[in-house]
Every structure is written in structure tokens, then in C-alpha cells.
Amino acid sequence: MSIEFADDEQFDPVAVAKAAKARDWAIEDARRLFSGPVEFKLSAPELQFLPDPDVPEIAFAGRSNVGKSSLLNALTGRQGLARASNTPGRTQELNIFDVGEPRVLRLIDMPGYGYAEAPKDLVARWKRLILDYLRGRVVLKRVLVLVDARHGLKAVDLEIMTMLDKAAVSYQLVLTKSDKIKPTALTATMAGVEAIARTHVAAFPEILATSAETGAGMAELRLAVMTAAQS
Ligand SMILES: Nc1nc2c(ncn2[C@@H]2O[C@H](COP(=O)(O)OP(=O)(O)OP(=O)(O)O)[C@@H](O)[C@H]2O)c(=O)[nH]1
Ligand SMILES: [Mg+2]
């Protein structure tokens, strides 16, 4: 890939090298942060059970079975921290994890949306919980909206994205299970999803492709989460 410069721009190799070095340091800071203390705090079936909003929060949202709990585990390098399962509807409450000692941020593993097979009243309860949390949590710094790399954006994802746009809650689209498709297909899906992200005001322009299985994209995701918490 070549980088093109406008006529009036000067290519400054020193500035480019400095920026690359700063990014390497930030990646290393993020790696250290998540390899330090990470602890399960509590499960909140309703908003009233959430901890005091005293540190930044980053939430993992997405359709049921997209890989939210698995990604949280991969991000923190701890298998089994958040419970993942092949059965959709595994995560039923807002599961809260404290990161750092002293605590610098919280990760929120959310129930999935768009899961049609669960009993109607249960789905309604999850939906209420998800929407109330996403719209009303003052310390929520960014929502990671997870999208299965094989399937791309579905109607229910676009619905959540539009809701977040309206509520002015910043979010980033993260493709999951990138190990399950060929690199060419992944590139095509990324381009399509990126084009749609550009039309949503609260969406972060950069899309991340990840795999909890292989660890692909995890250094970038750690950096994105740490940076979002500091913003
Ligand atoms: N191959 C592959 N499988 C994955 C990946 N991430 C998750 N899975 C699998 O996908 C299934 C669902 O993963 P979960 O992490 O439980 O998904 P979830 O989004 O938390 O699901 P709910 O809590 O039910 O909404 C599990 O069988 C995981 O092992 C990945 O990156 N690659
Ligand atoms: Mg889950």
C-alpha cells in the first residue's frame, strides 16, 4: 500500500517514525493494562444493581452468539472470565468487570439482542435492560458493537446503531470470528461495513477485525478500549 501526499504536504520521515513509536508504546501500555488485575465485579439484572458510576465503562454489545463474552475473555487473556457458550442467550444480565488496581475502567458484557427463540417476556426484559443501560449510563465511554464477520450488519444492528446515534453514544464496530472466513472475504466485509459506518454520526470511522480464537486484532482492540476509556 502506498501513501499519497498532497502537493503542499511535506513527507516528514522523522514525524512518521515518531508517530509509529508512540503507537508502539500505547499498544504496550494497553497490553500491560489488560494483563494486570481484571476481576468480575457483579451481574446486574436491572440498572439499580449497577455499581456507582465512578470510572469509565466500555460495553460489549451485539447479536446473540456474536462472540461478546469470548472477545472479553480474549481481550483480557483470561479464558472463562466471562461465560461463553454455543447456546444463544448465554449472557442474561449486565456482567461487570473491573480493570486495573486501582481500577481504571470497567468492561460490561451485555446480553445479546435479536435472539428470537427465547421466551417473549425474557427478550423484552433484555431489550429494556440493554436500551436503558446504553442510553442512560453517564460513564459509558464507548460501545463496541460486535458483528459476525461472516454475516455483516443485520437490521437489528442498524437499529441499535441508529439508537446510539440519536443518544449521541460513541460506538465502534468490531468484526468477530475473523478466523471463520477467508482474508479476501474479510476485506470485502470490512469495506462494506466501513462504508455504512461512515453514514452513522456516532460511529467510530475505524472498523476492527478480530478473532477470539486466534487473537487476531486483539492488540488493536486493547489499544482502542484503553484510549476510549481515557477520552
Ligand atoms: N471460531 C470462533 N468462534 C468463536 C469466536 N468467538 C466466539 N466464538 C464461538 O461463538 C459462540 C458464542 O460465543 P459467546 O462469546 O458466548 O457469544 P455471546 O455474544 O457472548 O453470546 P450471548 O451471551 O448468548 O449473547 C461460542 O461457541 C464461541 O466459542 C471466534 O473468534 N472464533
Ligand atoms: Mg455472552
Automatic annotation (TrEMBL):
Cofactor or coenzyme needed: Mg(2+)
Question: A GO CC term?
Answer: cytosol
Is Cell division included in the keywords of this UniProt record?
yes
What's the superkingdom here? Answer: Bacteria
- PROSITE patterns, from UniProt? G_ENGB
Q: Does the keyword Transmembrane helix apply?
A: no
Q: Which CDD domains match?
A: YihA_EngB
EngB-type G domain residues: 54-231
For this chain, one GO molecular function annotation is:
GTP binding
* GO biological process, any: division septum assembly
Keyword set, alphabetical order: Cell cycle, Cell division, GTP-binding, Magnesium, Metal-binding, Nucleotide-binding, Septation
Gene3D superfamilies on file: P-loop containing nucleotide triphosphate hydrolases (3.40.50.300)
Q: Which InterPro entries match?
A: G_ENGB_dom, GTP-bd, GTP-bd_ribosome_bio_YsxC, P-loop_NTPase
- Free-text function comment from the UniProt entry: Necessary for normal cell division and for the maintenance of normal septation.
Record-stated family: Belongs to the TRAFAC class TrmE-Era-EngA-EngB-Septin-like GTPase superfamily. EngB GTPase family.
| Official protein name in the record | Probable GTP-binding protein EngB
This chain's source organism reads: Sandarakinorhabdus glacialis
This chain is encoded by the gene named engB
